[in-house]
Amino acid sequence: MACKGPGAELVPSSVDTSAFDGDYTLKPESSFRSIRQKVESEKDVERRKQGESLLQMFAEQYANFRIRNGVIRSGTRLVQEFSLLDAKVEGNTLRGKALWHEDVADPGDSSEVHVMLRLNGNMLEFAVLDKPGQSSDRPVVLVRRGPQNSRY
Fold this sequence. Notes:
The chain is of the alpha+beta class. It has one domain: Lipocalin (Beta Barrel), CATH 2.40.128. 17% of the residues lie in helices and 37% in strands. The chain is built from 2 helices and 8 strands, in the order βααβββββββ. Strands 1-2-3-4-5-6-7-8 form an 8-stranded antiparallel beta barrel. A hairpin with a 2-residue loop joins strand 2 and strand 3. Helix 1 runs antiparallel to helix 2. The longest helix has 17 residues. The chain starts with 21 loop residues before the first strand and ends in a 7-residue tail after the last strand. The N terminus is likely disordered.
């Protein structure tokens, strides 16, 4: 499906994410914990630099994180989109299946992934799940900012 203008979602979602909708700022020091621990314990200078570059790439991938009407977008150089196909909310946690486009500027390829959102006050954890219901070991931690009703 083609975009209808700048910022329009590639695949609209009918999933209600109103409790999660908003703009978020990445907390890089709290995100990607297992990778960060490996980088911090690395003694080889070259390998440590490679690890730091990887962490920077992940930080760019989850910058400008926003949720609107069942669609999650984030990124700086490449903007990725997760459009929720279905989801279940239990308490402060949403688990569901999403259609993921790694680059909204190149909408030709996509894949289905399982995702999790967990909101505690203004703190949000986001993870692409390894398997339905199983969180990866590197959740992204974000803080909600600004009003919830801004647009893409």
